């Protein structure tokens, strides 16, 4: 499953918010569903009793029964349009699971949740019935349907369990559910419904009674019964289809070929009126499905075109062919994840698959390529070889995240996408693990018990840290050796399950074959079985090196040791030296000693997961090297030096002026990673000081640094075009925003002239989508009422979501506080601003220093109205509080926060309370930071700035 963004607690929260906004309720359907729900509680079997009493359960299935195959019939009672009578939103069906009894027992334990089980029958391999004595559906975290038998099941014997069931097609995006979508047909917009499934991690039990654990793999024989005029998809290719009358209505009965042996969580179905784009690759047929209007205008063309290349790259890399004869991809407007890797039927959120070349940024194209590569990688890592239990889910998600960069590089070789690994995976991970002691990457099996325990593992640790440690291992043992070990691992466990020790063992064999003595398990378990990461301290005068747990809060540090792979580069040499630090130290090694005033750089290309601190002399040498010829230091390490210096300053290991000095060379650097990192680090300073009377010195410094880069991209920008390389495209956007935002006159003039020219024909496409956000924002900031009203009318009239996103952000850039107040009032009017747009509007105005205090005043005055508007959705309000209070750094603002909490009381904030409490904590920390750093920082900028 493609990740939601787990970079910080705030971003994790924003992910929940996005999921909230994605759920669109339809009142008529909800009423009907509620009526059905009243009928479908518990289980319909006459002997079934619900037993909620007793001690907490063992939620793992016993190993005495092992499934072999399922034969399933699912009838989806869904109308894809609302203009019908007797609308229903249920499904029904039956399943026969063939299982083998491993150990004699008189119990069948199987998963079942929120289903009305209407019939249960059991027969042995000869067709003889086995009587059911008693059934119990547990109302606890086990979700067990316990079936007690009158006779004992015999070991080494095959049995068949038949269950008939009914369930609700809800909107909760778990199991089998309804998704609403909007479709544009000509000048009119209509909406329809489809049924889609999402089984990961523990929702298959909400669709049919099953052995719902990843190690309980089986073959699935699926038949879907659906309305005439709809298309049913599942994991395997269609085998047969016929039309038949059921209860006086005509239905299509679509039978699919048997699947390969697989886990329940990758079982999938969809029923829709979608159409597709098709390519026959010989061994398999690729179909990409979406709304008919999206197919017609080519919005799936890009995703469809790159999928085959990405799949082929993984086939070649691991020497295992994609084992199915078809691959369906489908775009669902409201989906819980960016994508879900169901074998043969990958379901994506629409934003992960559709690309509008007229309005979408190229970063959207990169996002699509990354998500597709992630899901295709899962066809090997997760589907072909599956973790034994969910504590090892990182074997799925860490590999898929790591390989997504390789897949995109194959599909788009000019993008240099792998360079983004550091700023997308490593930077945020280092930050959050510096603040809190998060969990270890691989928890113990007994720590992962309940469904909520399993859900909690789908976090930034599993995705990003999993990818980071795999990349670190690959770099240390060499990519060739790593791939060889992974190939062996995949072939040994294909169609089966594995644990992390199995991976280490196969990579160890590859290491041994390469005459290497690295002990893979020892090294890797220091990273996967311990939280956090180390700070490596090198004294280049003495050659001493040591490690310690890096945390901002000293009292939270653990006395733990990692086996740290270190790659070392010295000035005047292209040779990279490799070492493994296995003790806390300090220990003295000649390779870490500087000779003849040379600089030493550790963690070359940032393949290791740690920070580095040096003696003051080596820091100064690195600074001088950046000032004379920054190309001598690898581009990712230039970003690393900036990041490490600022974070070490925050932890009081170095002075803040040293960190600021690492931004001085940037006017000569034309690469994305250093600039993206520096902007991230400087953003906190700007937020703390942009209301200061001396902020003009910071603006002047920013103009000085960014001006050469603006000139570098000016030819592209003036012609509204973009460079070929993705990293250059992203840097161009950053540069325009920083140049115009810091007051660079020629940038602001360009923005105003471009906007005025575009105003003459706003339907023209000559302003590239990449450039619209920074240019329109700068033009609105420099303009007045007339420019704002023009953009507001376009925003009201457009139906293209990508365009609305651009215009909504630009409208918030005005410096006119009266206009901003009006825009805030518009958020209370659903005819002007939709509920789903509320957060982004508030966030955008908050980012505008002219609007920051206005948003806070608005929230305080309108809290009662906002509570009523977002009743039951306080998470949205919490996200707004989190955003608007980020700048708070004065005693007055702290008092306002505490008074706001006091005036309303904790209970009035509901699920938004955490945001207000966090805002108070952060304001206290910001006040302390300003007291310690403000004067030092402003004096530094005063000395470095020049008039621009």
Characterise this structure.
By secondary structure, this protein is of the alpha+beta class. Among the domains are: 9-279 and 328-339, Immunoglobulin-like (Sandwich); 534-662, Immunoglobulin-like (Sandwich), CATH 2.60.40; 814-943, Zincin-like fold (Alpha Horseshoe). 43% of the residues lie in helices and 20% in strands. A hairpin with a 4-residue loop joins strand 16 and strand 17. The radius of gyration is 29 Å and the shape is globular. The model is unreliable at 4-56 (pLDDT under 50). InterPro entries: Aminopeptidase_N-like_N, Aminopeptidase_N-like_N_sf, ERAP1-like_C_dom, M1_APN-typ, Peptidase_M1, Peptidase_M1_aminopeptidases, Peptidase_M1_dom, Peptidase_M4/M1_CTD_sf.
Characteristic terms for this protein:
948 residues; Immunoglobulin-like; Zincin-like fold; five-stranded mixed beta sheet; seven-stranded mixed beta sheet; alpha+beta; protease
Structure class: alpha+beta
> What is the residue-averaged pLDDT?
90
General form = globular
- Poorly predicted spans: 4-56
CATH architecture of the domain at 9-279 and 328-339: Sandwich
Number of helices: 29
Total strands: the figure is: 29
Largest sheet composition: 7 strands, mixed
Order of strands, main sheet, comes to 5-8-3-2-11-14-13
How much of the sequence lies in strands comes to: 15-25%
Question: For this entry, what is the oligomeric state of its chains?
Answer: single chain
Radius of gyration: 29 Å
Q: What fraction, in percent, of the residue positions are helical?
A: 40-55%
Q: Span from first to last CA?
A: 48 Å
CATH T-level fold name of the domain at 9-279 and 328-339: Immunoglobulin-like
CATH class of the domain at 9-279 and 328-339: Mainly Beta
GO molecular function: metalloaminopeptidase activity; peptide binding; zinc ion binding
Active site: 375 (proton acceptor)
Region (Disordered): 38-62
Protein name: Aminopeptidase
């Amino acid at each position: 499953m493609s990740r939601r963004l787990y970079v910080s607690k705030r971003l994790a929260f924003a992910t929940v918010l996005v999921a909230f906004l994605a759920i669109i309720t339809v009142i008529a359907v909800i009423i009907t569903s509620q009526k059905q729900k009243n009928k479908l509680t518990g289980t319909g079997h006459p002997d079934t009793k619900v037993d909620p009493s007793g001690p907490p359960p063992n939620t793992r299935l016993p190993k005495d029964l092992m499934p072999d195959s399922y034969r399933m019939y699912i009838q989806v009672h869904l109308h894809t349009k609302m203009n019908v009578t007797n609308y229903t939103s249920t499904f029904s069906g039956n399943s026969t699971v063939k299982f083998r009894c491993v150990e004699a027992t008189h119990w069948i334990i199987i998963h079942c949740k929120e289903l009305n089980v209407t019939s249960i029958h059991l027969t042995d391999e000869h067709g003889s019935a086995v009587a059911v004595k008693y059934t119990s559906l547990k109302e606890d975290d086990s979700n067990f349907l316990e079936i007690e038998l009158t006779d004992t099941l015999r070991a080494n014997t095959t049995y068949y369990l038949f269950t008939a069931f009914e369930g609700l097609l809800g909107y909760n995006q778990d199991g089998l559910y309804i998704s609403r979508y909007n479709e544009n047909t000509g000048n009119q917009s209509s909406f329809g419904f489809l049924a889609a499934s999402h089984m990961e991690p523990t929702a298959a039990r909400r669709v049919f009674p099953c052995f719902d654990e990843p190690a309980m793999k089986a073959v699935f024989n699926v038949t879907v019964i659906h309305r005439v005029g709809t298309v049913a998809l599942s994991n395997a290719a269609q085998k047969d289809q016929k039309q038949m009358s059921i209860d006086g209505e005509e239905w299509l009965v679509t039978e699919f070929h048997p699947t390969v042996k697989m886990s329940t969580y990758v079982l999938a179905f969809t029923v829709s009126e979608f159409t597709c784009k098709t390519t026959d690759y010989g061994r398999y047929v690729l179909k990409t499905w979406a709304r008919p209007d999206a197919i017609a205008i080519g919005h799936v063309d890009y995703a469809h075109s790159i999928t085959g290349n990405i799949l082929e790259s993984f086939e070649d890399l691991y020497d295992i062919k994609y084992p199915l004869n078809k691959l369906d991809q489908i775009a669902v407007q409201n989906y819980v994840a960016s994508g879900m890797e169901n074998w043969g039927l990958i379901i994506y959120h629409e934003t992960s698959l559709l690309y509008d070349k007229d309005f979408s940024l190229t970063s959207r194209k990169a996002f699509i390529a990354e998500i597709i590569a992630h899901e295709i990688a899962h066809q090997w890592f997760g589907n072909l070889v599956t973790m034994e239990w969910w504590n090892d889910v990182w074997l799925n998600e860490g590999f898929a995240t790591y390989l997504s960069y390789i897949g995109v590089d194959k599909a788009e070789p000019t993008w240099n996408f792998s360079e983004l690994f550091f700023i997308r995976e490593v930077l945020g991970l280092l930050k959050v693990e510096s603040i809190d002691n998060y969990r270890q990457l691989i928890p113990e099996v007994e720590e992962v018990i309940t469904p909520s325990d399993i859900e909690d593992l789908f976090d930034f640790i599993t995705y990003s840290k999993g990818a980071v440690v795999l990349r670190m291992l690959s770099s240390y043992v060499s990519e060739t050796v790593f791939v060889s070990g992974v190939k062996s691992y995949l072939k040994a466990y294909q169609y089966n399950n594995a644990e992390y020790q199995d991976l280490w063992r196969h990579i160890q064999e590859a290491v041994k074959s390469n005459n290497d003595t690295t002990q893979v398990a020892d090294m890797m378990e220091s990273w996967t079985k311990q939280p956090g990461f180390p700070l490596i301290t090198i004294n280049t005068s003495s050659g001493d090196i040591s490690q310690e747990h890096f945390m901002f809060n000293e009292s939270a540090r653990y006395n733990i040791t990692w086996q740290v792979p270190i790659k070392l580069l010295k000035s005047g040499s292209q040779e990279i030296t490799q070492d493994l630090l296995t003790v806390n130290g300090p220990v003295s090694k000649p390779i870490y000693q500087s000779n003849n005033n040379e600089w030493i750089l550790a963690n070359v290309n940032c393949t290791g997961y740690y920070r580095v601190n040096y003696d003051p002399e080596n820091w100064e040498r690195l600074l001088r090297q950046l000032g004379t010829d920054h190309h001598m230091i690898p581009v990712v390490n230039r970003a690393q030096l900036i990041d490490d210096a600022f974070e070490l300053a925050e932890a009081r290991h170095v002075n803040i002026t040293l960190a600021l000095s690492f931004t001085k060379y940037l006017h000569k650097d034309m690469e994305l990673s250093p600039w993206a990192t520096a902007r991230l680090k400087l953003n906190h300073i700007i937020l703390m000081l942009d209301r200061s009377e001396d902020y003009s010195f910071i603006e002047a410094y920013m103009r000085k640094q960014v001006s050469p880069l603006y000139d570098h991209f000016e030819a592209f920008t003036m012609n509204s075009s973009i460079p070929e390389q993705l990293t250059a495209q992203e840097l161009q956007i950053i540069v325009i925003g920083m140049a115009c935002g810091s007051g660079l006159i020629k940038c602001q003039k360009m923005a105003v002239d471009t906007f005025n020219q575009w105003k003459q024909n706003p339907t023209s496409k000559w302003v590239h989508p990449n450039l619209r956000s920074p240019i329109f924002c700068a033009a609105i900031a420099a303009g007045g009422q007339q420019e704002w009203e023009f953009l507001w009318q376009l925003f009201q009239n457009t139906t293209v979501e990508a365009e609305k996103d651009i215009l909504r952000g630009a409208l918030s850039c005005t410096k006119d506080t009266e206009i901003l107040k009006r825009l805030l009032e518009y958020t209370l009017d659903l005819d002007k601003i939709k509920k789903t747009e509320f957060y982004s509007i508030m966030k955008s105005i908050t980012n505008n220093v002219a609007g920051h205090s206005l948003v806070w005043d608005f929230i305080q005055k309108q809290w009662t109205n906002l509570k009523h508007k977002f009743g039951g959705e306080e998470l949205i309000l919490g996200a707004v509080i989190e955003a608007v209070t980020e700048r708070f750094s004065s005693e007055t603002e702290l008092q306002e926060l505490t008074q706001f909490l006091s005036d309303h009381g904790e209970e009035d904030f509901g699920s938004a309370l955490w945001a207000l409490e966090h805002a108070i904590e952060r304001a206290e920390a910001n006040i302390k930071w300003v007291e310690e750093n403000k004067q030092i920082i402003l004096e530094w900028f005063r000395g470095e700035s020049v008039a621009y």
